[in-house]
Design a protein that fits this description.
Number of strands: 5
CATH architecture of one domain: Orthogonal Bundle
Structural class: mainly alpha
CATH superfamily of one domain: Intergrase catalytic core
Strand content: 5-15%
CATH class of one domain: Mainly Alpha
Number of helices: 9
CATH topology of one domain: hpI Integrase, Chain A
Strand order of the largest sheet: 1-2-5
Largest sheet: 3 strands, antiparallel
Order of helices and strands: HHHEEEEEHHHHHH
Distance between the termini: 69 Å
Radius of gyration: 23 Å
Helix content: 40-55%
Shape: globular
Amino acid sequence: MKSGLVTRNVADAMDCPKIKRQEMKTWTSEDARRCLEVARDDRFFTLFPAAITTGTREGKLFGLHWQDVAPVVGAATIQQILHKAEKDRDFGHPKTERNRRRVGLLTDLVAALRVHKAAQNEEKLILGPGYRDCGLVSCVPGDAPISPSNLLKRHFLPLIETAKVPQIRFHDLRHSRASLLLADGVHPKVVSERLGHASITITLDTYSHVLPDLQTEVVAGLQRRLFAGVATAR
């Protein structure tokens, strides 16, 4: 078109297929609490509260390195991503500085990470030379990277069944985190920053299903603050 050889872009006349979004399922705070109680003795326990409290994507959690965790200040820095290739699992780095971000860790999660680190050190002593020290926070015996499908089948789904909570994907823990924050009245801008979204628009579009309830709460709050005990009818 720039050269003047054609007068229009024929692709503009195409009807593009609609993108079907996968249904989002989330947990309530009670669902999350029940699952965490059941998961206490699971090898990968720390992954679950990390996902539900930070909203970090699974690949970033699976690739988290101990050197990027700062228990004293209660934070972790996302520097590495485990890709989902099951046979040849490899690591990459976040594409943008925004995705290479620092996330705050709850006090209980920091305590759980300390216990988990001590258990890893004990395992290292037991296995001796057979322990390949990759420095990963979450790993299988011998410090090999996690297989996402094995985590789902052997750990996450059994925990869901035992806890008797709605079945969701591991990624839905991230959605649950966002929904719970919005339901608690946290400003969407803050939620957007916690999730590492490029803009608040993405957050609002993704979690618009939570917003109608928030509108109702806002109206009810105004009613209480402005008209409590005030007779308005004539």
